[in-house]
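2 proteins. here.
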Amino acid sequence: MTGKWFSRFSSYLSTMTGRPSTFVLAAALVLLWAITGPLFHYSDTWQLVINTSTTIVTFLMVFLIQNTQNRDTAAMQIKLDELIRAIEGAHNALLDLEELEEKDLSRFRKHYEKLAEEARTVLRAGGSDTDSPFVDNSDEGDRK
């Protein structure tokens, strides 16, 4: 059993379930169920129908959503890796960071947080940064 059919199936199904018409259909089914309450005297079986249906749908959707999210994340990581690789002066050591251990990721994160804070300090002092967004020149105390 190959995963190709599941990837296509999950892409199709996630596209279909994300449409407004699918939401309207689901809401209509819930409304229909609620309206039939008096007909079935709000019996345990009547309640079991909606409970079982929603539990099964939720259970299956977890796997569908996770598959779609995994593929989207992998594609995004590949695109980011290509951008890093293609930009002259970029650090190729940053390629494939998602595969590192948490302690190594933490080391990288702390380094970049320090660089970001230094850059913001320079900008607040009137300095410049390559293609930087506007940074408020107000004092740190003004924002607290």
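next one coming up
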Amino acid sequence: MLVTIIGRGHSGTRAISETLSHSGIYMGEPLNGSWDLVPPEKMYEACRVFGSYVKHTGGLNWDFSKVIDTKPDPIFIRLIEEYLHSVLSSKAENKGWKIPETTLCYPWILKMFPEIYCIHWVRDPRDCILSGHVTDDLNDFNIKYPTTSDIREKRAISWKYQRELMKATPSPPSLLFLRFEDMVFKQDETLSKLENFLSMPMAKIHMRRDSIGRYKTDTQNSFFDFFKEDLLDCGYEL
């Protein structure tokens, strides 16, 4: 079984990667403090190759038809295979990886690994954009977007772009949607969903409740109108 996590940086993906690792799923090596498979440079470069196939059509709209309809670029395949060497060469029965940038090339990951188990991991974007992440500026990954000097807006657009890419991608055969907030407040229920999805027992880890709702006491803007539809779709309150 091969597993990956699809979720933007600072969405709490560390928790699910740590959970899978403690449950006996080999997550590659080495791992950093966020339980990402590193070094990440090959993945970053693969995402730039992918990004060159995405067309910005104005505003918060992108044309994903090329990445949905075409096979992955051979350079992309080579870079991903090199990045995932420790995972793909492992003889472990159950294995996978986590790095947020996987979300930036999600459709081609599915084409390379059609039998993969995907965990879509979501966190309230109002919390997700409070801290900086390498994916804040999509231009760094050859993805065009409306110019802004507001760093919070850049992060919000990055969140929105990744959400739109996820929604535009045909669902794989094995897909599970989970929320970070449920892992914090309903860990037993969340782990039960994971156990049914992966057909194996899941380990509990320590989760911090103060990770939730930080935007409520933040002094800067953390809400953008284009969040509304996705907030409701993901079960969050406005």
